[in-house]
Amino acid sequence: MKSKVYLETSIPSYLTAWRSRDIVAAGNQETTKDWWDRRHDFELFISVFVLKEAAAGDAEAAKLRMQALDGIAEIEMTEDVEMIAEQLLSQVPLPSKAKVDALHIAIATIGGMDYLLTWNCTHLANPALRVKIESIIRALGYEPPVICTPQELL
Predict the structure, then answer these.
(1) What does the pLDDT read at residue 94?
(2) End-to-end C-alpha distance for the chain, whole angstroms
(3) Which one of 3, 6, 105, 114 has the minimum C-beta count within 10 Å?
(4) What is the spatial order of strands in the sheet that 115-117 belongs to?
(5) Where are the alpha helices (DSSP H) in 38-78?
(6) Is the pTM of this model over 0.85?
């Protein structure tokens, strides 16, 4: 059985973006492309939040992001997603502007994902927040996904 992976918006963004002049960002883009070549080893999922974020901004860039996401299964929004996100926002040191990040974690949890794949290392793939996030999710009776970057999942 394939592992289930929730793709947060930074994945299609890095995958389809013009090559960055920043060496670290360019390396992350290449790593994303390497992971994308292996995507068939996993069962992929997204959410309405990913679609909304991917469709925003420059029209040509949005078109490329949406094409990359075409055909990927979408996890449905439930009341439990909103409840988990609110708990995360109130108990984890996340700024209120990180609500969508909390929603990504919550919907990946409700969807039973094994992994949440992201390049957002500020609010998502942040080791300083990981223990607290996992503790809250487990206290609510769910198993959290492993939040990681493509480099970690290669």
Answers:
(1) 87
(2) 18
(3) 3
(4) 73-74, 42-46, 3-7, 115-117, 146-148
(5) 48-55, 59-69
(6) yes
